[in-house]
Predict the structure.
Amino acid sequence: MARPEDKTVLVVDDEPDIVMYLRTALEDAGFNVVTASDGQDALEIVGKSIPDFISLDLVMPRKSGIKFFHELRRKREWVRIPVMVVTGHARDEKGSKDLNEILSEKTMSGPGLYLEKPVKAAEFVRAVADALDVELPEASVPGVDPDDLRRQARQAVDRASPEELAAALEILRRQKG
C-alpha cells in the first residue's frame, strides 16, 4: 500500500480559504500538495508535472472545472488521473448541470467521487486516501473525534452478533499484548 508522502494532490479552487483548508488537511496527513485557482492554472500545472489526484471545484473564473475536466480527459496521459469534485454548487443552477454531466459519464470517463462544501477535513482526506489506496494512520487523519469514534464503536457493538463480538475482543487483546 502506498504512503501519503509518495502522492501529490492538486487542489483546484478559486476560494483561497478553501484552498488553504484542503491543503492543510492533506499536508497534515502527509500528502504533497500543489494548488491552482482555476482550470487554466490547473492545466499548466498538470502539463508540467502530473499529479496523482485532483480535487476540483466546478464554478471558477477564467476556466471552469467542467472545462478543465474535459481538457484533462482529452489527453491520453491524463485520462487516468482520479478526480474528486468538491463543490458548493451541486444543487444549484451554477454547478448542478456540470456535476450531473460528469457523474453520468457523458464525458470520456467521469470521476467516481464528489463532496459537497462545506467538507469535513477527515472525510476529504479519507476520500483521497481511499482513491489512491493510501494507508493513513488514524493520528494523521485531521478531525478524528474520540467521542465520534466511541459512538461508532457503540453502534457496531449493538449490531454485532456474539461471534463477531468475541472475534473483535480477541483482536483487541492481541493488539494490547
Summary: The beta strands are 8-12, 32-36, 53-56, 83-87, 113-116.
